[in-house]
Design brief:
Elements: E1 17-20, E2 27-28, E3 42-44, E4 48-53, E5 59-65, E6 70-71, E7 79-82, E8 86-91, E9 98-103, E10 107-112, E11 127-130, E12 136-141, E13 148-153, E14 158-162, E15 167-172, E16 180-185, E17 192-196, E18 201-205, E19 210-215, E20 226-229, E21 235-240, E22 246-251, E23 261-264, E24 272-277, E25 282-287, E26 292-298, E27 305-312, E28 319-322, E29 334-341, E30 345-352, E31 368-369, H1 377-381, E32 390-391, H2 421-430, H3 434-446, H4 460-501
Parallel strand pairs: 2-6
Antiparallel strand pairs: 1-30, 2-30, 3-4, 4-5, 5-7, 8-9, 9-10, 10-11, 12-13, 13-14, 14-15, 16-17, 17-18, 18-19, 20-21, 21-22, 22-23, 24-25, 25-26, 26-27, 28-29, 29-30, 31-32
Helix pairs in contact: 2-4, 3-4
């Protein structure tokens, strides 16, 4: 190994240590899929663990509550609506009950998992997305816009969908000449980075369908690569050297001529899957078939990528799920948790920072991305961008009370006399960009607040008034948001027109 050593660098993550959970907390008898596709095969959120499993005559994945442990019965219900093996699964960042799956049957399906988990096999998806001509192997939800999902298939095409309406909103069919290995959104979802079998790294604006930056031969080796956008706009890639050594490289998108840092690790042939934590700026590398998880910290000081340590075990990993920060145990100073896939077992592994104090460690837990989306799908399509809406983990994260909103309704009812409570509550809950949120707050201050219904007998009239006020308030919020989105769109078009007139385009 050629990790840099020397002067001891000060970092609160230098002593992060990894520890596997005891056997009784593992999930046993899980028939992990043997599909030959370099994806993690597992997706985790604070409610559920999903694992792609072996299934005869089609594709299936297992979904169990995150508190589940012990043996999985062979009759345990699965999500089994695909006609061919499932290649990728991803939970929605804005609804812990929504999961998307991509399959060799050329379709992407979106499923709504009930709160307690499955009680019977699930075969009917709430949305099926059909637009790829070959198998679909990559899914990536938009980090801040509600119901925007990116898919990439073996037809070398990238599709961007509005899941709420089921429509294909953008398609990039000529950006990649060969198989796409990975796709990653940047922090506010205004661009994606991709790596492809032609060894090139591309930065793409999916709304304009243009390739903004290209770097040929990011890694010289012929084996698959991965790329992930960091929160400061840099890109971290993993791949292989000409001599088949596994590499990690850091790139500055302002200048892709040379990497900021390159580290070579070993000559194993497993693809390195990077898992990035934007809150701590740490990257965890899990190699398929490896017995180790390496972790690094990315900083602004040379050599930029600092090797911290590695977790080693006897059993190789078939894949791994990475739990979002909302699900970690802040009382135990847990900063990350993996769910390592063995051949027949799922084993949780905690990454913790030792601290003596029992108090909340604010330096380890900056505010993190919450469930609430910053934009509606239509706002993002209209040209708006917004960073994630952050929540505090102080005292542990608890999800906001359910608004009983129609999860996949991307367009609120604007002027409707009989709009139901579900639609209006969705409008109020989902329009959450910084600008529209402030408008909504102003509106709430101007509007009289609904009265709390009393329980002294005749409550029907106050309740009806409350419902009317709620509907009016939600419709006003929705209208304001649409006006803001259109004004942003006009500004964007004016800027583009000015650039054309100046000869920049």
């Amino acid at each position: 190994m050629s990790f840099r050593r020397g002067v001891v660098r000060q970092s609160k993550f230098r002593h992060v240590f990894a520890q596997a959970w005891k056997a009784e907390h593992c999930i046993d008898d899980v028939r992990v899929s043997r599909v030959t596709w370099d994806n993690p095969l597992c997706a985790v959120n604070p409610k559920f663990i999903a694992v792609i499993i072996e299934a005869g005559g089609g594709g299936a994945f297992l979904v169990v509550p995150i508190t589940k442990s012990g043996r999985i019965d062979q009759s345990c219900p699965t999500v089994c609506g695909h006609a061919a093996p499932v290649l990728d699964i991803q939970w929605s960042p804005h609804d812990d009950n929504i999961i998307a799956s991509a399959s060799e049957d050329c379709t992407v399906k979106v499923w709504q998992i009930p709160d307690g988990g499955l009680t019977s096999p699930m075969t009917e998806a709430i949305v099926t997305l059909e637009g790829h001509s070959k198998r679909v192997g990559i899914l990536a939800w938009h980090p801040t816009a509600f119901n925007i999902l990116l898919t990439a298939g073996c037809d070398n095409v990238i599709c961007v969908w509005n899941v709420g309406t089921g429509e294909l909103v953008y398609q990039l069919s000529d950006a990649h000449p060969d198989l796409i290995y990975s796709v990653s959104w940047n922090k506010d979802g205004s661009a994606v980075c991709t790596v492809c079998k032609d060894k090139a790294l591309r930065v793409i604006d999916p709304r304009r369908g243009t390739v903004l930056k290209v770097k040929e031969k990011v890694h010289d080796g012929t084996r698959p690569m991965r790329a992930v956008f960091l929160s400061d706009g840099k890109i971290l890639t993993t791949g292989f050297s000409r001599m088949s050594e596994r590499q990690l490289a850091l790139w500055d998108t302002k200048d892709l001529s040379e990497p900021m840092a390159v580290q070579e690790m070993d000559t194993s042939n497993g693809v390195l899957l990077p898992f990035y934590d934007p809150d701590t700026n740490m990257v965890y590398l899990c190699g398929k078939g490896d017995c180790t998880i390496r972790y690094f910290e990315v900083t602004d000081e040379s050599p930029y990528v600092h090797f911290l340590s590695l977790y080693s075990s006897k059993e190789p990993q078939r894949g791994a799920g990475f739990l979002s920060k909302r699900g970690v145990d802040v009382n135990k100073c847990e900063i990350a948790r993996f769910y390592k896939l063995h051949e027949r077992k799922v084993e949780p592994i905690s990454m913790t920072v030792p601290r003596k104090s029992d108090l909340f460690q604010g330096d380890l837990y900056p505010d993190t991305a919450g469930l609430e989306p910053a934009l509606l799908a239509d706002e993002w399509i209209a040209g708006q961008d917004a960073p994630p809406l952050l929540v505090s983990l102080s005292g542990g994260y608890s999800a906001p009370p359910s608004k009983q909103r129609d999860t996949l309704r991307s367009k609120p009812k604007l002027v409707s006399q009989d709009s139901g409570a579900g639609a209006t509550q969705h409008s109020a809950g989902s329009v959450a960009s910084p600008t529209s949120a402030s408008v909504a707050r102003d509106t709430e201050e101007e509007m009289p607040q609904p009265r709390v219904a009393t329980s002294d007998g005749n409550t029907e009239r106050p309740k009806r008034e409350d419902e009317l006020l709620t509907e009016l308030l939600a419709e006003m919020k929705a209208l304001r948001a649409v006006v803001l989105a259109q004004s942003q769109r006009i500004e964007l078009l004016e800027r583009q027109l000015a650039r054309i007139e100046d000869g920049d385009v």
